[in-house]
Here is the input.
Amino acid sequence: MYLSVLNMIKVKNIMTKAVITISSNSSIKEAAKLMNSKSVSSLVVVEKNMPVAIVSEKDIINGIISKENKVKEIMDREFIIISPITKFLEISKHLREKKIRVFPVVQDNNLIGLVTETDMIEATRDFTRFHQIVQEIILTVFGLATAFFLFYFSPLRASILG
Here is the structure.
C-alpha cells in the first residue's frame, strides 16, 4: 500500500520551480560562481529554454583539473527529461538504477521545473510523517471507542448511573 500511495505523488507537487540555468557557452568560472551564489550543486544547461545537459559540482572540479574553459566541454548530456505528471516511483527507479540525481521537468517544450534527489528524499520524509500522523489518529479513535465500550458494558457504569 505504501508504494501505491507513493506512486500517486506527481512531479508537479515536488519539483523546484525556480530552476537555475546556464548557457553551454558560459565559462566554468561563471558556472561555479552561479552554483555558489544560489547554493545549488548542479545547473541545467539550456538552449531556447530546453535542457540540453546538466553540469554538476563534480563536472566543474573535473573541468578545472583538466583545464577546460567552457561549460559545453564538461557538461553531462546523460540525463532524463520528465513531465509534470511523471510518477514518483518512475523517478525513484531512475535514481536507483541509473544513478541519475537531477531531472529537468519540461512541459510544452519549456523548462518549468527540476526534481533533484533532495526533492525525492523530502517528499518521502513528508509522506512518512503524514502516514505516522494518520496512524496515530486511527489508534486514538480506536482507543477512545474501546474505552467507551468497556465503560458502557461494565458494572461500573451501572453503579455510577444507577
User: Anything to note?
Assistant: Helices lie at 2-7, 11-14, 28-38, 57-65, 88-97, 117-152, 155-161.
